[in-house]
Amino acid sequence: MLQFPVEDQSRLLRKTVVRRVILAVALLCVVAIGLVFPFPFGGRLSGELFDLAHAPVFCLALLCLIGFCDPPAIGLPKRFATILPMNMGRAVAITIALMLAGIVGEYAQKFAGRNASWADVLANSAGMLAALAWVASRKVSGFRRRALVVAGLGLIVAISVNPLRNAWDAIQQQRSFPMLSSLERSRELGSWARYRSEFERSTQWASDGEYSLKATLPPGEYPGVALVYFEHDWLEYSQLQLDLMNPNDEPLTVTVKLFDEYHAETGYQHNDRFVRNFILQPGVPTPIAIDLADVEAAPISRKMNLECMWSIEIFSCDVMRTKYLFVDHLRLTK
After folding, report:
1. Are residues 171 and 272 in the same domain?
2. HEC profile for the chain?
3. What is the pLDDT of residues 85-131, one digit of tens each?
4. Res 41 pLDDT > 80
5. Does 313 lie in the same domain as 199?
6. In which domain, by residue range, is 102 found?
7. 0.70 cut: is pTM over it?
């Protein structure tokens, strides 16, 4: 068997340590960028795919960090040098450190224009627990090894079910275009946002199908809802249509506000968006039709970019007592 001099062995070990430290730092930088960097592409589907990636990415990241210290601990051949023997205590310590880094990264997202989420923290943790289960399985055999591997895979699958279903609904939403929102699928609610209000799917009234969006508008300024995830290119269409219904015992004035991606560059100025008021009579379904030519011409100093429409907001002003509003069947027509 070929033997290296002690000095050569020491030099090789130092080089190995340096290479693996560099790899570990690079890996942590990649994870940090993925957590915090405000990626230019948006949309509901890409967001769900990001959510889907959390568990497997953190599982792989933890396995890599443990493997950099002790490759055989994650199942690699013993010919790879061990620079720090890995027992479960050390593996758990690395897990806790990576978990804290993930929480810090989630918190930092709000400073980078992204949304922090405890669901993401849970997905990160599930991925790391799956990695720990894999490491633990390397130290046992037979049924216990298989059970640990299955448990780890089960964690990844379980935490991935919800983003997978949401991603599939986002695909269904894209396929249904020029229908923007029909509310017939329960997960369509993921395309909506609330502003000082609450909302739910309801069968109390619908203009098309069985369901509509029921918004609860509490007292205050501008309570409402917004469709924020939809197909943004409206250039080939002539009208935005939607159906509203006021179930209250008195007329309700609502405002429909539309703007494009570039509205943010103007500081959300009032004269750079489309705004129109509608008076809804009690108990009377009210179909709304908005000509996109009017939307395009709404900004004072430019034309609205119908290829990059960004938000459809529906709200009421200065609500004195709790009101309700039904919204349904948002679509584009030619």
Report:
1. no
2. CCCCCHHHHHHHHHHHHHHHHHHHHHHHHHHHHHHHCCCCCCCHHHHHHHHHHHHHHHHHHHHHHHHHHCHHHHCCCCCCCCCCCCCHHHHHHHHHHHHHHHHHHHHHHHHCCCCCCHHHHHHHHHHHHHHHHHHHHCCCCHHHHHHHHHHHHHHHHHHHHHHHHHHHHHHHHHHCCCEEECCCCHHHHHHEEEECCEEEEECCCCCCCCCEEEEEECCECCCEEEECCCCCCCCCCCEEEEEEEECCCCCEEEEEEEEEHHHHHHCCCHHHCEEEEEEECECCEEEEEEEHHHHHHCCCCCCCCCCCEEEEEEEECCECCCEEEEEEEEEEEC
3. 999 999 999 999 999 988 888 888 777 666 768 888 999 999 999 99
4. no
5. yes
6. 6-175
7. yes
